[in-house]
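**User:** I keep going back and forth on a fold encoding question. It is easy to fool oneself when nobody else works the same problem. Could you pick a protein and write out its sequence and tokenised fold? Could you put it straight underneath, so I can go through it closely?

**Assistant:**
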Amino acid sequence: MITLDFLLTSLIVVLLPGTGVVFTVSTGLIQGTRASIFAALGCTAGILPHLLATVLGLAALLHTSAVAFQALKLAGVAYLFYLAYVTWRDKAAFTVDPAPSASSAASLVAKAFLLNILNPKLSIFFLAFLPQFVQPNAASPLPDLLALSTVFMAMTFVIFVIYGLLANAFRKAVIDSPPVQSWLRRGFAAAFAGLGANLALP
């Protein structure tokens, strides 16, 4: 059931800096507004499998299967460390690209999608989070879960786009300052590595 408590809790969850936020902000700074929207779209799409897993009850299976959880978790850790390495090495990343090509747009969506789909903790989070807002006397929880999931995804996309737009507002200052570019590149690389280390923890 869509309540004020659900909306406020979801807003707080979406606003908290995580892998999707870091990726969207870095994309907005590096490639501009349109690219950040594609990143936000990919991050939002990346939570869809986790939401579906929760709705269909597969998250419970993932939660009870240590092997499946660890396999997905290790894949996510490896991908985050890969992003950290690529970001650290790519010294030509901060270039003006106001209109990403179709291929680069697809690449951004794919990268963002992988970022969230390879985080098994999202399934566990949704398994614990969504049922709290389902009507206990409902004949079937499916309509409530689908409605809650739809609202959460819409909120995620909007907030991530805002993050990207805010990052793009500072883009000119970043592009005109090589030292700032260097520090930001290292900062984003460290953020991805830190998120990977955090995901590796129990």
